[in-house]
Design goal:
The protein has a two-stranded antiparallel sheet with strand order 1-2. The two termini are about 30 Å apart. The model has no long low-confidence stretch (mean pLDDT about 85). It has one domain. The protein is of the alpha+beta class. The protein contains one helix and two strands; from the N terminus they run ββα.
Amino acid sequence: RWDSFSAHTPMGVKSFHNLVATYDPLVHRRLVLACHYDSKIIPGKVFVGATDSALPCALLLDIAKTLGPMLAARTYQMLES
């Protein structure tokens, strides 16, 4: 789901958007993986994000992909017992 909001910044009010993905929304305990990707506003120039923002997001997406089968196996084991 998207969590969208507006906030005051030095460049005026800007819109922000967070993507929230939940593997199993019914569980009581969760592991939260969080990162951010941002851009700078530089008058007269185009600047979209930076490696220091994009790399942690890419790493966490890969970690989430790797954890998927392990979490599914754990859920299956819990249902079996």
